[in-house]
Design brief:
The complex is a heterodimer.
Chain A: E1 5-7, E2 10-14, E3 19-24, E4 32-37, E5 44-49, E6 55-58, E7 61-65, E8 71-76, E9 85-93, E10 96-99, E11 103-108
Chain B: E1 5-7, E2 10-13, E3 19-24, E4 31-37, E5 44-50, E6 53-57, E7 64-68, E8 74-78, E9 87-94, E10 104-105, E11 109-113
Parallel strand pairs in B: 2-11
Antiparallel strand pairs in B: 1-3, 3-8, 4-5, 4-9, 5-6, 7-8, 9-10, 9-11
The chains are: A mainly beta, B mainly beta.
């Protein structure tokens, strides 16, 4: 059983659509991170959320940390082809990093 | 400010051989972590080094070992390679913080074991 469950696993949408991806766990975390990874590259950090209920915005991306600090969501408004990639959530727990298996997003022109 | 670099980019080995992968951390960072990423999966944490000491390890056997040097560069060594070791190996550097580490990843080394 994975510590972090991400859904959906795959998402294919048209440019201009909105989408939300989720990262869920039964454990409580002090912080959670979101990364985006493009083919042939390492993941790139998008945001770190640390407070329950926290909302952070990065241009068209909105990140929310659940009130109980067990889950998080990433909402993209008016998706663009440049948003295509693998979106990963991650936590640092007892000197170990854990990543979810990711949501593979394909934005079609 | 230079980013995280890894070498080599690609590597082909045969089962039973040994391999050493290298990582150069981002300037000012004192922590390095190594990951194994199979195709279509998220990265799996191998271990972390902080100030040249291992201070966290994932579920990987002892044939996976590492070193961190005084200049904060790092090596990942894998002995007795198995076919399942074929994967993208990523290193990430960070500045150790109490609550969380914001990691900066290198582009990875693609290892193929035949």
């Amino acid at each position: 059983t994975q510590l972090l469950e991400q859904s959906p696993q795959f998402l294919s949408i048209q440019e201009g659509e909105n989408l939300t991806v989720y990262c869920n766990s039964s454990s409580v975390f002090s912080s959670l991170q979101w990364y985006r990874q493009e083919p042939g590259e390492g993941p790139v950090l998008l945001v770190t959320v640390v407070t329950g209920g926290e909302v952070k915005k990065l241009k068209r991306l909105t990140f929310q940390f659940g009130d109980a600090r067990k889950d998080s969501s990433l909402h993209i408004t008016a998706a663009q082809t440049g948003d295509t990639g693998l979106y990963l959530c991650a936590v640092y727990n007892f000197n170990k990093f854990y990543f979810g298996s990711g949501t593979k997003l394909n934005v079609k022109p | 400010e230079t980013g995280v670099t890894q070498s080599p980019t690609h590597l082909i080995k045969t089962r039973g051989q040994q391999v050493t992968l290298r990582c150069s951390s981002q300037s000012g960072h004192n922590t390095v972590s190594w990951y194994q990423q199979a195709l279509g999966q998220g990265p799996q944490f191998i271990f972390q080094y902080y100030r040249e000491e291992e201070n966290g390890r994932g579920n990987f056997p002892p044939r996976f070992s590492g070193l961190q040097f005084p200049n904060y560069s790092s090596e990942l060594n894998v002995n007795a390679l198995e076919l399942d070791d074929s994967a993208l190996y990523l290193c990430a550097s960070s500045l150790m913080r109490e609550l969380y580490n914001e990691q900066f990843f290198g582009p990875g080394t693609r290892l193929t074991v035949l």
